[in-house]
Amino acid sequence: MKSQKAPGGVGASRPIRDAQEKVSGQKLYVADMEFPGMLYGKMLLSPIAHGKIRSIDTREAEALPGVYAVATFRNTPGTSFNSAKRLIEQQVICNEKIFDDTVRFVGDRVAAVAAETESIAKEAIKRIKVEYEELPVILSAEEAAGEGQYPIHPGGNIAGKVEVSAGDPEAAFLQCDYVLEGKYSTQAVHHGAIEPHVAIADWNARGHLTVYSPNQNSFAFRIILSEIFGISYNRIRVIVPAIGGAFGGKLEVTVEPVAAILSKMSGRPVKVELDRRETILASRLRHPSLTYIKTGFMKDGILKAVDFKMYINTGAYASSAMNVAGALSHKVFMAYKSPHMHIEIYPVYTNTIVSGAMRGYGSPQVYFGFQRQMHKIAKFLHMDEAKLQQINMVDPDGKNPVHHHPLGNPRPKDCLQKLLELMDYSKLLKEQEQSRKEGGRYRIGIGIAMGVHGNNCFGAHRDTTSPMIRMNEDGSCILYTGAHDMGNDSVGMQVQILSQVLGISLDRIEVVAADTDGCQWHIGDYSSRGVYVIGAAAKKAAEKMKEELRKEAAKVLDVLPDQIELHDDAAWACDGSGNYASLRQVMIHCQSVSKRELCVMETYHAYRGASSYGVHLAKVSVDRSTGETKVLDYGAVHDVGHVVNPMMIEGQLEGAILMGLGYGLLEEIQYDARGIPSPLTFRRYRMPRAGQVPKLHLGFVADIDGGEPGGPYGAKSLGESPVVPVAPALVNAICNALEIELDELPASPERIRAALLEKGNA
Question: Using a CB cutoff of 8 Å and minimum separation of 24, what contacts does 561-566 make?
């Protein structure tokens, strides 16, 4: 009998499934696609941050040869929608329109044109004449939330409030030996996906709308388009050919309604593709935040009480404001054993670019403050930061103090221990101390931080997915999955699981993905639910297909179904005879003798929550003269339950560290007094470059006590959690190097020099 290990199955290290297509340029992205008679759409974006459109004259644009449609608020649906809506019954704040008579940020949609060529469309846009009545501009969330401020939307500038409590924090503070308060702020940053935002819409003569879009939530996009245009779901199809990076930025509707209305007006397919400047202006940014934290603790470092008050800047429209606020409100309860905690969050409208989903979904903002606060507690108590973390981290049998549900199998302590060994922590501390003693221009600093992120939507709303598997008559199979692969190989992960369960070679499994007409309903790809939920669903469907194949193979081999094993693209009799039948033979028998096809579909519902933990350690060198920071070594160990694909998960962790490095040290979208944002090009936007990649030391904690309950083979996701600890680890290292405090991101040279000056003047 041959080896029973499925080639490339679970645990095998392999490149992402479409790697060859991508590196060879054969991968078809939406921007590559052309249709007969296709037109090109361009948008006119507001040059002012806040104003009422007094007049708009489109006659010159309409008269330009080659122009087929000009859309404004006057001739398009005035339906208000929420670009982040996910469920048909979901109650959300709807205050965005395709076009409105009021603009609320620089980059807001004013008009759009469809023309024979992109150059004609650009020229037509220039010929649209608009007069604005300018209104007050408010850029700060805390200012916008104040009394008497001009309302950006009717009802005021506070979009809502989220509040969650555990225990009795106020009473607990009175019992603490010490209480420490802090104020922390984080900035707006751009996702930086290589692929800009783009969509092609084809509204045909039968009244059917097909949209091709690189998005993370095709079924939700169908819901929103249905609400805007008043057509039923059977007349809308959303297809995701490929995604050239997303990081949450393609979770919300942006250009799709514009392409759709232009297609309807012109009777032709229309492609709307943004350039980089337009993508930064007219898509989404990470929510800027301001966090007040109060912590009560004992002389031995044990946390007793924590209180958070946050303002998150949602920008000009509601978008995912309440979703992000709700998600981050629960994440702070997952890290430490403090029994008394309270958090209240206020999403606030401002005249800035719309904020939306971005990797970490609020966790990087709140954990920046939380981990900086832990640093200050350790410093106050003259305690080692690693020890302070260790005594407060949740245990494997820990429960969420809010609702007392199990946290799963959390292993932050194991991550910390492995990281300290991996990085030779005691040696690093000696380097830091020696650097201080030498008092030179360059100072060495060490910083530690922990991060947490959930693995699904359990407790917030339903979390289901429904993969389907169909066997072909030659023994190969096709997986139909609503999942969207954003470059993290979430589709390839499902294929590996099918290969493991069914014994079918990877190259004999094909996939149809993210097509609202071709796949079963799927809630979307966010909340780090890939392996934990989607992987579990794929395994459940594969096990159902396995039983069907065993039933059929039993007839061919004349044994009982439970005496059949599947591997190496064949069914094997386990009766000692060595007999086997290829899956091709099994399927031919199924069709010709049993007169049936094999196609199974399973709906999997996440029945519990889970959290992924990671602990990071940064070693930096800081130039006291210039404030420049160089990251010398960076270590990260994450709790992942079980590793499905080592190569993929290592790459995902490396990418997250670089994203966090940019967030911590370099990147920031700023506004002048008029609300004009900058920078708007990659040339000026300071994302980390190859030469800034530090030496990385990576590790994973897996397969302890069976891994994560509910996850396939005990696996849980990495996804978003590794971006969470990076910024605080870096800033803690800088603060340790220079013996200063930095409570704003990014930790730019200017902020570092200002902190050194303040220290010198103290």
Answer: 565/4, 565/503, 566/501, 566/502, 566/503, 566/504
Distances (CA, A) of 531 to 242, 297, 345, 540, 714: 20, 37, 30, 13, 10
Let me know if 377 is exposed, middle or buried by CB neighbors in 10 A (0-12, 13-18, 19+). Answer: buried
With 80 as the cut, is the pLDDT of residue 672 above it? Answer: yes
CB 486 within 8 A of CB 560: no
Dmax of the chain from CA atoms? 90
Rounded-to-integer distance, Cα 701 and Cα 330, Å? 24
CA distance 158 to 141: 9
Query: Strand 51-57's sheet: what is its strand order?
Result: 102-103, 51-57, 129-134
Distance of CA 323 to the CA centre of its chain: 13
Buried b (16+ CB within 10 A) or exposed e, 217-253: bbbbbbbbbbbbbeeeeebbbbbbbbbbbbbbbbbbb
Q: For residue 726, give Cα distances in angstroms to 117, 202, 413, 644, 657.
A: 44, 43, 18, 24, 6
Tokens 């603009």, residue located: 103
Tens-place pLDDT, residues 368-424 = 999 999 999 999 999 999 999 999 999 999 999 999 989 999 999 999 999 999 999
Which residues, in sequence order, are CB contacts of 292 under 8 Å at separation 6+? 181, 182, 183, 308, 309, 310
Contacts of 46 (CB under 8 A, 6+ apart): 103, 105, 106, 107, 108, 109, 110, 132
